[in-house]
Amino acid sequence: MSTVVLIGTVAMVVAIVGCFFIWRLDASRAEEVEHTAPPPRRDVPRVAGPSAQPKHLDS
Predict the structure, then answer these.
(1) What residues does each domain of the chain span?
(2) Which of helix, strand or coil describes residue 1?
(3) pLDDT, tens digit (0-9, with 9 covering 90-100), for 21-53
(4) Rounded to whole angstroms, how far apart are CA atoms 23 and 30?
(5) In sequence order, what are the residues at sequence separation of 6 or more whose Cβ sits closer than 8 angstroms to the Cβ of residue 6?
(6) Bigger pLDDT: 24 or 57?
(7) What is the pLDDT, as a whole number, of residue 35?
């Protein structure tokens, strides 16, 4: 019976430590992304394409 309690206790401790470790990695990644500057925006002039001629049913 004590073996079952020991295994259960170890499993819970490992789960709690693992969750904390994963949570901390996720939080550090979020901080890294938050502090990363976005790439500089290059304003590219938009070139208008050729205007389409209206279509007529008669022609």
Answers:
(1) 1-34
(2) coil
(3) 999 999 998 888 877 776 777 776 666 666 667
(4) 11
(5) none
(6) 24
(7) 76
Measure the CA–CA gap between 30 and 26, rounded to whole angstroms. Answer: 6
Pick the closest to residue 28 from 36, 39, 37, 18 (CA basis). Answer: 36
Residue 38: both structure tokens together: 């976005």
Residue with tokens 């979020």: 30
Rounded-to-integer distance, Cα 19 and Cα 26, Å: 11
Residue 49, token pair as written in the block: 């394409």
